[in-house]
Amino acid sequence: MILSMKTVTSYLLLICLLPVLSWAEQKVSFHQISKTINNEKIEISGYIYQSENGEAYLAPQPDLKSCCIGSRQRSGEQIVLKDLESIPATKQPVTMRGTLRIDPETGQMFLTEGEAVPKENRLHLLFAAAAVGTAIFFFLLRKRI
Predict the structure, then answer these.
(1) Cα–Cα distance for residue pair 27/14, rounded to 1 Å
(2) 140/4 Cα distance (integer angstroms)
(3) What are the alphabetically sorted keywords of the record (predicted)?
(4) d(Cα 63, Cα 48) in Å, to the nearest integer?
(5) How far, in Å, CA of 136 to CA of 127, rounded?
(6) How would residue 38 be classed by pLDDT, with cut points 50, 70 and 90?
(7) For residue 25, is pLDDT > 50?
(8) Average model confidence (pLDDT) for the chain?
(9) Which residues have a Cβ under 8 Å from the Cβ of 56 and sit 6 or more positions away?
């Protein structure tokens, strides 16, 4: 069975892009949260704040004033971080992973069994995959000529 150059190139491109495509993780934004994802594992990004009573909150907005953190008016826009080790407040966005629980009476959201997701720089893997794909492409192109 002889494969055409176009078929071989398509397969090589798919093989090179497969690691990149597998990196995409299901993330949820604050706008996508609804009661349908209650008690499910999620990954969400936001800013961590400490309230006056010591509770940690995750919110989508940077630079919230202390009066807004943990307020009832903002309960649908902030997630209480429960069962966590000490996580300091930060001005940089943080991605958290855990189980989202929504109180049906108040609508207050809680992230339990949560952990901060470390930022990984996988750009070097992308360049390596592109280099291997390019080398194979030129090798096959040279064989054809």
Answers:
(1) 24
(2) 11
(3) Membrane, Transmembrane, Transmembrane helix
(4) 10
(5) 14
(6) confident
(7) no
(8) 78
(9) 48, 49, 50, 80, 81, 84, 87, 89
Answer whether 23's CB lies under 8 Å from 10's CB.
Answer: no
Q: Of 55, 58, 62, whose CA–CA distance to 95 is shortest?
A: 58
Asked if 144 contacts 4 with a C-beta cutoff of 8 angstroms, the reply is no
Q: Which two tokens stand for residue 62?
A: 């940077």
Is the model's pLDDT at 36 over the cut of 80? Answer: no
Asked if the model's pLDDT at residue 18 lies above 60, the reply is: no
DSSP 59-119: ESSSS--TTTTT-GGGTTT-EEE-S-------SS-EEEEEEEEE-TTT--EEEEEEEEPPP
Residue type, 34: S
Closest by Cα among 103, 83, 123, 100 to 27: 100
